[in-house]
């Protein structure tokens, strides 16, 4: 079965246009995300609040919150999707393959022992839309709490996944760390 990954790209207050910043060897942050998803054999669609050049198709979205963007892309495409943040450069094939094993569930989401979820590294079925819409209509803008109200959710233990999988770039310091991690990987390989 062919799976689709929707990559959410929004404007960042802390690091504007971070997705388009050059990371390594002429590649932008978003390019790394798309390459890693394609290496995992996923069809990639970018769901963005702004347009930019990309090797993946872009659907423009004007949602203000992550939760409403997730609802919107599930409605527009009307199919099950993996949804990832556009600032997660170390998404990897092994962890996606692990998640694919559980796609018979309505949601597959990594969860830490403390209860924290990784909702932008997850799989969603459109079957969750009625609950998500209901939560949004009540003023709930938390994707985390909406997931907790859904049935048939598989919580994948996040501690069992490679730690870099969830690394995301939110600040200048994260961006500098990303460059160091990439250099370290190039030396190891």
Note down, in words, how this protein is organized.
- With 189 residues, the chain is of the alpha/beta class.
- The chain has one domain: Spore Coat Polysaccharide Biosynthesis Protein SpsA, Chain A (Alpha-Beta Complex).
- Helices cover 33% and strands 22% of the residues.
- The chain is built from 6 helices and 9 strands; from the N terminus they run E-E-E-H-E-E-H-E-H-E-E-H-H-E-H.
- The strands form 2 sheets. Strands 5-4-1-6-8-7-9 form a 7-stranded mixed β-sheet, with helices on both faces.
- Helix 2 runs antiparallel to helix 4.
- The longest helix has 17 residues.
- The protein is globular, with a radius of gyration of 16 Å.
- It starts with a strand and ends with a helix.
- The model has no long low-confidence stretch (mean pLDDT 93).
- Can you tell me the CATH architecture? Alpha-Beta Complex
Query: How many beta-strand runs?
Result: 9
In the predicted model, the low-confidence regions spanning at least 5 consecutive residues are none
What is the CATH domain class? Answer: Alpha Beta
**Major beta-sheet overview:** 7 strands, mixed
Structural class computed from helices and strand pairing: alpha/beta
Order of helices and strands: EEEHEEHEHEEHHEH
CATH homologous group name:
Spore Coat Polysaccharide Biosynthesis Protein SpsA, Chain A
Number of helices: 6
């Amino acid at each position: 079965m062919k799976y689709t990954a929707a990559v959410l790209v929004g404007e960042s207050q802390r690091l504007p246009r971070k997705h388009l910043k050059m990371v390594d060897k002429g590649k932008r942050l978003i390019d790394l995300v798309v390459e890693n998803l394609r290496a995992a054999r996923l069809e990639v669609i970018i769901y963005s609040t702004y347009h930019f050049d990309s090797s993946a198709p872009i659907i423009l979205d004007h949602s203000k919150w992550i939760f409403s963007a997730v609802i919107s892309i599930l409605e527009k495409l009307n199919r099950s999707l993996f949804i990832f943040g556009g600032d997660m450069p170390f998404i990897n094939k092994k962890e996606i393959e692990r998640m694919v094993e559980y796609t018979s569930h309505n949601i597959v989401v990594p969860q830490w022992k403390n209860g924290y979820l990784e909702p932008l590294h997850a799989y969603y079925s459109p079957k969750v839309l009625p609950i998500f819409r209901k939560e949004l209509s009540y003023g709930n803008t938390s994707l985390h709490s909406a997931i907790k109200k859904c049935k048939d959710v598989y919580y994948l233990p996040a501690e069992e996944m490679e730690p870099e999988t969830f690394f995301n770039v939110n600040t200048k310091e994260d961006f500098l760390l990303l460059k160091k991690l990439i250099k370290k990987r190039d030396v190891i390989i």
